[in-house]
Design a protein that fits this description.
With 470 residues, this protein is α+β, with helices and mostly antiparallel strands. The protein has 2 domains: 193 residues, no CATH class; 206 residues, no CATH class. The chain contains 17 helices and 19 strands. The N terminus is likely disordered.
Amino acid sequence: MSTECKQERLEFQACGGREVVGSFDGGRITSDAGGLLLREVERRRGIIKGFAGCFTDYRDPRYIEHSVEELIAQRVYGLALGYEDLNDHDELRSDALLGVMVDKQDPSGMDRVRERDRGKALAGKSTLNRLELTPANRLGNERYKKIGVDQGAVENLFVDLFLDGQRKVPKSIILDLDATDDPVHGNQEGRFFHGYYGHYCYLPLYITCGDFLLCAKLRPSNIDASAGSVEELERIVSRIRARWPKVKIMIRGDGGFCREEIMAWCESKRVDFVLGLAKNGRLRAKIAVEMEQAKNEHERTGRAERVFADFGYQTLTSWSRERRVIGKAEYLEQGANPRFIVTSLKATRAKRLYEKIYCARGDMENRIKEQQLDLFADRTSTATLHGNQLRLWFSSVAYVLLNELRRLALIGTEMARAQCGTIRTKLLKIGAQIKLSTRRIVISMASGYPFGAIFKQAYENLRRHLLLQT
């Protein structure tokens, strides 16, 4: 009869003349030791702390083992480390490294009140789930769901983190707007079928400034892509100008945001704009000469050729005034490819406006992909729109945290422009042994870790940033 020890052994293919066996008996070992860098970023920037300050805890203090800040830190760090589902935390709650990141007094969890929780320093999925399920209109009145959030405070937090992250006041900034589909597969509140995307989805609005996230607004999909943009711009621009009254602001977006309401607002608020403009017969006629030139040049060279036109234009009914339009008359191997933008900028040349300023907005799509693909912003599977908005914000805070790691710690390294998924794989996923004593917590990281030099440089950059702050 085989012993219990034999049953726990995992036998693999032999290596040379030696057998290869494994078992889950290594003790306190983590695969996420690089998360310590995220903890250092949080200590310097207070991103999670600020986010937690937007919540109100109506629970009875006598029965609280996990503070709101600890719950939020656990959720955000989990997303940053690649654990998208709440179910993951029933195992993660025993991870001493995550306990250290969350700043648990005893990361081993041996100080828990109930015997069944001993050895599990962190919250399980049910406790974390209450963060998302507290109804927005019944704060404190539920039996179990007693943690409410101030949505306005969260929205302003992203702007404040952007403002606080600048070492000096910029002369000008560009705010990028974009909407994307967030597919859903259940009967979530606010989900509708979207004809363009061809499935049921939400239609979140994102506003960024470079790599900084300023707005992540979850919306139903039965609306125009630009719906609510003026209200969000009013809030964001007002907050920016309260701190930086002289900064020049420009907004940039695709044709989904070329709306009279937005352009008129910009003109009344001294905000410039460069927006895509849907093509039509009148616009094509305006660049007919330039398109013929591009076609002739393409036939001569065999390459894609483009000629730019610059003219005033007003729609028949929807625009209140004539505005400057740039037409790109481009001829490709597949044929004509006309494109148009409308802008309030007067002096900038047409070619530069289109190629250097407008086309640069495409980088914003990478920021959205980072959130959706790397940080699980599309895991909006709770029943309510409010709960799914919270999930989007958890992902957004994880993005802000990783972006600060990229901005502060990875400057001057080969990963300075790496995306969040790459940073996680190469910098955060490090195997390590954890040794706990009364006075010390020792993290012994794998000797064979291949990106040690980058990790050490990131650590030194964060230390240098701390010295600059003091």
